[in-house]
TrEMBL record:
Pfam families: Acetyltransf_3 (PF13302). PROSITE patterns: GNAT. It comes from Nocardioides furvisabuli. Residues 14-171 form the N-acetyltransferase domain. Keywords: Acyltransferase, Transferase. This is N-acetyltransferase domain-containing protein. InterPro entries: Acyl_CoA_acyltransferase (IPR016181), Bact_Acetyltransf (IPR050832), GNAT_dom (IPR000182). It comes from the Bacteria.
Length: 171
């Protein structure tokens, strides 16, 4: 995956690129700037901060079984405003867990959709055929995003929702 410039539906331009190990401190800063509600929706638990070990895990990806891309404004490549990632399941290598996070101030502009498009293209390149998403049932933004991407098998159990997005048909 190369760095790409994307125009969002809001008209804003952003750059999306693969995450790097050197992004760990910025990822922690971006997390700290998120509202408590956004943090809760992303991690489904009260997580007051992203620890050093979590930041290292989230940035030390192999770009095949664990991929992540980050978005930043073209004029500031140090400020992460969104992240999308997949982690392939070892038991079912055609499937991967999906997560998308967008900074509060960038929500509603189309950044989540742009990140998902870029990540999906990379997933297909490395043989992932389906994303599985687990999210809070009241997270209307991510549920809407995934429905627009073709989410199937959507289920709700208590406060948790799950679904799948098929990326490519098996050969």
């Amino acid at each position: 995956m190369d760095e790409v410039e994307v125009r969002l539906r809001s008209g804003d331009r952003v750059l999306i690129r693969p995450i790097r190990a050197s992004d760990a401190a910025e990822l922690q800063r971006a997390f700290a700037l998120m509202s408590e509600a956004s943090q809760y929706q992303r991690f489904m638990t009260g997580t007051p901060r992203l620890t050093d070990s979590q930041a290292a895990y989230f940035t030390a990806v192999d770009h095949v079984d664990h991929e992540a891309c980050v978005a930043h404004a073209p004029d500031d490549d140090s400020l992460i405003i969104g992240v999308a990632r997949f982690i392939r399941y070892s038991s079912t290598p055609d499937d991967a867990e999906l997560a998308v996070t967008v900074a509060d101030s960038w929500q509603g502009r189309g950044l989540g959709a742009a990140l998902l498009r870029v990540l999906t293209a990379r997933a297909v390149e490395v043989g992932v055929r389906r994303f599985r998403a687990e999210m809070m049932a009241d997270n209307a933004a991510i549920i809407g995003l995934l429905r627009s991407a073709g989410m199937t098998d959507e289920t709700v159990s208590g406060r948790l929702a799950t679904g799948h997005v098929v990326l490519a048909r098996p050969d």
